[in-house]
Amino acid sequence: MPTTTPPTTQPATTVPSQDLLAISTSQCGESKACYRKPAGCSGSDTCDFLFTQRLVTPSSDPADAIIEVELAARVSNGMGWVAVGYSTDDRMGDDDVFGCEVGSSGLVYVKNLWNPGRFNVIDNSQDGAQYLTVLGSTQNNGRISCKFQRALRTAGVTASEQRDLDLSQPYTLFFGTRSAGTASANSGLSGRHETNPVASTQTVSASSTAELNASARDRKKLQAHGALMIIAWIGASVIGLFLARFMRKAWDKPYWFLFHRGIMVFVVVVSVIGIILIFVDVEGYSDEHKTHAALGLVTVSLAFIQPFMAFFRPAPDAGSRRTVFNWAHRIVGVAAQVLGIISVNFGLDAYKKVGFDIDDKGMIVWALWLGLLGGIWVLLEIYTSVGLSSEEKGKDI
Asked: What pLDDT, on the 0 to 100 scale, is given for residue 77?
């Protein structure tokens, strides 16, 4: 097996745009671990995405061993980036990332980064790539290609975390890319990937020589969480509040109460199911989207206590105790509704950050819908408070 000189501690270098760096796939499954998209593509000039990895200087001591990585991808207009992340689990966050990006000068830079969540930050303690030896990096005809080596183990790379980057251990690999024409591409490797990255279906160690398969993470629970919360807090709860606020005097019999109670119980049940789904999906409380998570929990907690407050409500002729209950029930209900709408808004932003396709048009539709609901509500308040006589207020509006 060929050997190379161990990498120095000099920062990574770049080379001008030239003929695309050739990456061979002939040794995939033999001396290289490879991920190819589409499957079976033959090299950096034909693959939409190509990753290869091989151990070039095996050693019983990981500190003496060197790994070689090759990356290539198709990008729009020859601008953007391609990257691979090494994760100890099957989720993004607290991962080490190696990537190649086209700078404004047209040069291709190879960088070592750390991914604290769903975004990258350059590891300043490495000056970007102190432990990398760049063997080639080019962009040509809408494709990026790069090749580099690094030691398997570099202890204490980040001073604040003192992480030990030991690539001799098995990792799940994440493959991501971004083309030009977006803010994320323009912000370089610290920008969000173009689509949700795919992850290797098996763990990969430095000595692996397998043909790798990769797939996007199952997002059904995440999608179900969002759908249920929108149904609960933009649909059902608004109807429930409308019935309690505007229909109690419109119907001769208390049908409004029966519908209001049933709808609000539905809101609570659906919200609890939504909370369970997201807790299962993220395996606990999300530190990445703290505002949305906190608002959501407060909203569901307020909604959850409402039925219990109603169960212990005083009788209609209980005087001041009934008055206190009525105001408390209204305040908690309105607070839950307002926080629910705000939480959904933060949730939409969180979904955009994790790769869901919610463009500006979708956000405009969302804003118009909220404006329509708010406008109708204000008009009804004015109509019932000012536009009707005392006699008419008891009739159907």
From this structure: 66
Rounded Cα distance between 338 and 340, Å, is 5
**Left if phi > 0, otherwise alpha if psi is -120 to 50, otherwise beta: which for 319?**
left
- Provide the token pair at 366: 């969302």
- Residue 69 CA: distances (Å) to CA of 80, 84, 162: 19, 10, 24
State the CB neighbour count (10 A cutoff) for residue 381: 12
Give the separation between CA 206 and CA 29, rounded to whole angstroms: 13
For the beta sheet containing 143-151, the strands, ordered from the edge strand earlier in sequence to the opposite edge, are 33-37, 49-57, 66-74, 143-151, 132-140
- Cα-to-chain-centroid distance, residue 173: 17
Residue 93: helix, strand or coil by DSSP?
coil
State both tokens at 228.
């249920």
List C-alpha distances in Å: 269 to 4, 229, 338, 343: 62, 11, 19, 18
The residues, ordered by sequence, that sit 6+ positions from 270 with a Cβ below 8 Å of its Cβ are: 228, 229, 231, 232, 236
Q: How far apart are CA 116 and CA 95, in angstroms?
A: 7
**How many Å apart are CA 163 and CA 247, to the nearest integer?**
61
Instruction: Point out the residues of the chain with pLDDT beneath 70.
Output: 1-20, 58-59, 61-63, 77-78, 93, 116-130, 154-165, 180-196, 252, 353-355, 357, 387-397
Instruction: With CA atoms as reference, report the closest residue to 286 among 221, 334, 209.
Output: 221
